[in-house]
Design a protein that fits this description.
Radius of gyration: 27 Å
Strand order of the largest sheet: 3-5-4-6-7
Distance between the termini: 41 Å
């Protein structure tokens, strides 16, 4: 981190603890009737937005504005500071702060009089969120949502924090109101320093020295990494525990390369811990956002599409390696949940389910022992033992369903076979389902985001290739066609958001990079070259509008977007892979398929630029590490040519071949590697490396022997 960060004035850290006078009331807004036909005491500028999160705040007494040049110009015209409040629809603490502060007329009067309040949906505008989250990290060494930043009228932040109780929030506001009146120069100086710091975060220099990629570097990275893993419970040591799918996708590949047992152990204990834990919805399928404890027991209950798409991919890939039936069950139940609750009629995937219902976090998902006894009768004892239900409850007056004892020990205790136990548990779930469905449901954020759809699309593709369920491929194709027809222009430009039949918001780099990767994977499932062509069109557009020729990296925003106070790059990997690592992987694979050496060269330069950070910090650069795996272990290009290609691919996909890029079909098509390889009336397999192919074989087993 740049040393500039340590010189930032400590004003922001002190502000929240200074005692201030109470705010004075401003004018109350008049009653209004809105498009929903209801009368509301307050209505603000968010009422015409489509984001469910913004609409949640449309009738606050705070005079919220959506982010945009109009709001910024109004702040300048009225000489007001900005309050930039960022959150998302499923965020529990966002709801808490809204109820405590933003629905309070006294707090609203203070905000409206001295500030121009702006509400931002971080999922729609991650570019804005990134700017002010960086400010929050600079000042507090931590972040989260709700994110509340105070800025000058030109958008430069001088203070940022997360959740505040009402009294503390008013103290912070009053402090800066007084500071603006009495020492504006200090505020200006703070904003200048913070903005300079924001510009430096994740700034990557071009590295022109010799490139090298070898297995020993991966060993060094793993040795630093494994000490941070909880090898008993899974995930990282301590709490909270987040699913980090790209971490375990990489560790699967590292195990494949090295046969390192601890790498596989780290994956398997994590997948079991999540699948057994309260983070998994044992009744309805799908995973919650994260676990607040070290045992995967108590989730933060919102369900996000980006988590579930990636986890479907992870469990599907892991199943190919060890055929664990638990993994198959998780995939099937999660995709049942996605199809049932998160899929639009157009084939798009909605964004999230809220953590709260009826104003309580998790209320939709938890059970009292009394409820279970009444609904399950004589099977209640078995069910309660299986899911760790206790008489005195184990979470806030209720019970979260989670597994602590092995099913075999529960079966033995009740003198059942494991098959009989499974039958009883499934029957109990069916009995509980109508009661849960009758409860007031968590809110649905029904906006459809391109990048998150790409992750779920890839999840469906990976599940199809592993389990050969045709419904999974149909869902994947419907979603891919939705992206092409609704979100993609003829020149390759994407929109990020789709809501109420309208496509909007110029897309960001992750929308492109993750869609490129998803289309490449869809090609491997279908051998339909249109998906490589679409991916190439997206890559061409990215080159034209996102590239930074000085570094070889790519900006998060297009050169067509309105300018923010800094044009940022997304380098490290988090719960979603960073857009630069995702793009580098996509370019490497696409360049290999299309014989575009310039794409491969770009990917190598990108990972070379960041390798000095990747090796010592593997868990935070795990998607980059996957590219290093390919560059240290030249992938095979496996061509399956002939009418029987589907059967051959079904056999290949029963096992784990992470170092293979598959191609082929019943015709030679346009890929150069496939030219002159079709032999009439016979299906052949060519195993190639770096465009050089061995003699064709006709049996999968013989092809496997050629893949080391």
């Amino acid at each position: 981190m740049n040393k500039l960060f340590f010189h930032i004035n400590s004003l922001a850290l002190i502000a929240a603890f200074i005692l201030c006078t109470a705010a004075t009331c401003g004018e109350e807004q008049t009653d209004s009737t809105t498009m929903d036909g209801k009368k509301h005491k307050y209505t603000n500028q968010l009422v015409n937005e489509s984001s469910p999160y913004l609409l949640q705040h449309a009738h606050n007494p705070v005079d919220w504005h959506p982010w945009g040049p109009e709001a910024l110009q109004k702040a300048k015209d009225e000489d007001k500071m900005l309050i930039i409040s960022v959150g998302y629809a499923a965020c529990h603490w966002c709801h808490v702060m809204e109820h405590e502060s933003f629905e309070d007329s006294t707090v609203a009067a203070l905000m409206n009089k001295h500030f121009l309040p702006i509400k931002v949906d971080r999922e729609e505008r991650p570019d804005v969120d990134q700017i002010y989250m960086d400010a929050c990290h600079l000042m507090n060494q931590r972040g989260g949502w709700p994110l509340n930043a105070l800025a000058l009228a030109d958008g430069r932040p001088f203070y940022a924090g997360t959740y505040y109780p009402k009294a503390k929030w008013m103290e912070v506001l009053n402090y800066f109101i007084n500071l603006k009146e009495n020492d504006y120069a200090q505020m200006e100086e703070q904003a200048t320093k913070v903005t300079a710091g924001i510009a430096e975060i994740e700034k990557v220099p071009f590295k022109g020295d010799a490139q090298s990629f070898d297995k020993e570097e991966l060993n060094t990275m793993f040795n630093k990494w494994i000490g941070r893993v909880d090898l008993k419970k899974g995930g990282r040591e301590g709490s909270p525990k987040f699913p980090m799918p790209s971490n375990y996708l990489y560790l699967l590949r590292y195990h494949h390369l090295t046969q390192n047992d601890k790498a596989l152990q780290a994956v398997e204990v994590t997948l079991k811990g999540m699948a057994y834990g309260g983070i998994y919805d044992h009744l309805g399928g799908g995973f919650a956002r994260y676990s607040t404890d070290a045992n995967w027991k108590v989730p933060h209950f919102e369900k996000m599409t980006y988590d579930n798409g990636q986890l479907v991919s992870l469990y599907s890939e892991a199943y190919r390696l060890n055929k664990n039936p638990l993994y198959k069950k998780v995939v099937e139940e999660t995709l049942e949940y996605v199809a049932r609750e998160m899929t639009s009629k157009e084939g798009g995937f909605y964004s999230s389910l809220d953590a709260d219902s009826e104003g309580e976090e998790g209320k939709f998902y938890v059970w009292s022992e009394t409820e279970l006894d009444a609904l399950l009768g004589e099977d209640a004892a078995v069910f309660k033992q299986y899911y760790t239900v206790r008489k005195n409850t184990q979470w806030e007056h209720s019970n979260i369903l989670y597994i602590t004892a092995e099913p075999s020990s529960v079966a033995k205790k009740f003198d059942h076979s494991e098959e009989e136990l499974s039958t009883i548990i499934e029957a109990c779930k069916k009995k509980l389902w109508p009661t849960r469905e009758s409860r007031i449901r968590p809110g649905l954020d029904d906006k459809i985001l391109t990048s998150w759809n790409a992750l779920m699309l890839r999840g469906y593709v990976d599940a199809y290739r592993t389990f050969r369920n045709d419904d999974y491929l149909k869902a994947a194709l419907k979603n891919a066609n939705f992206i092409v027809s609704k979100q993609m222009e003829k020149d390759g430009r994407l929109n990020r958001n789709y809501k109420n039949g309208k496509s909007s918001i110029n897309a960001f780099l992750d929308d492109y990079s993750l869609t490129i990767e998803a289309f490449i994977e869809l090609y491997q499932a279908t051998f339909d070259e249109q998906w490589l062509q679409h991916a190439d069109k997206l890559a061409t557009y990215v080159m034209a509008h996102f590239s930074d020729p000085e570094t070889g990296m790519f900006f998060y925003t297009s050169d067509l977007d309105d300018k923010l106070i800094a044009r940022k790059m997304e380098i490290s990997d988090n719960v979603i892979p960073g857009s630069n690592s995702s793009l580098a992987l996509g370019l490497f694979k696409l360049g290999t398929y299309l014989y575009k050496d310039e794409y491969v060269k770009m990917a190598k330069q990108m990972v070379h630029n960041v390798k000095g950070d990747v090796i010592p910090n593997g868990p935070f650069y795990s998607n980059w590490a996957i590219l290093l795996y390919y560059l240290s272990n030249q992938p095979y290009e496996v061509a399956v040519m002939g009418d029987n290609w589907k059967q051959i691919m079904t056999e290949f996909d029963r096992d784990f071949y992470p170092n293979c890029l598959f191609m082929g079909g019943p015709k030679e098509g346009d890929l150069k590697l496939l030219a002159f390889k079709l032999i009439p009336d016979v299906t052949t397999v060519y195993v190639c490396q770096n465009k050089v192919c061995k003699l064709p074989v006709t049996e999968v087993q013989k092809a496997r022997e050629l893949i080391q």
